[in-house]
Amino acid sequence: MGAVPEPTPAVTPPAPVIRIAAAVIVDRDGRWLLVRKRGTSAFMQAGGKIEPGEHPRDAVVREVGEEIAVAVAPHQVRDLGRRDAPAANEPGHRLEAHVFAVDGVTDAVPTAEIAEAVWVTPAEAAALPLAPLTVALLADAAGR
Q: What residues have CB less than 8 Å from 98, skipping those under 6 apart?
């Protein structure tokens, strides 16, 4: 009798990637601005999907205006690098997040797509349901 062939291991396709720009907004008192989009439970940075052909910096400026009605000037935006994280609101997807600090924001007015915007300390944020990217950014800020 011939040898029984080894079973071929199942290959899991990579998770689809969503390219986003995220705004880390922290006030003078160390409070972070987090938003919760309508129909979701997780709090996260203001931001969203990068349009085809759009530069990530332009996307974060656009998204901050769309989500919290804040006009951001280019000098207010500092690149904090790129991160990968599971998507909070799209099961089975991963984020390629271009993260930017946005300085000088003191007020936020939630727009139609935002159910809630809150200013919280990192300790207060820990009590909220948070998106995975937000958990990682808060941990990095705390030096963990």
A: 19, 20, 21, 22, 50, 56, 57, 59, 60, 79, 82
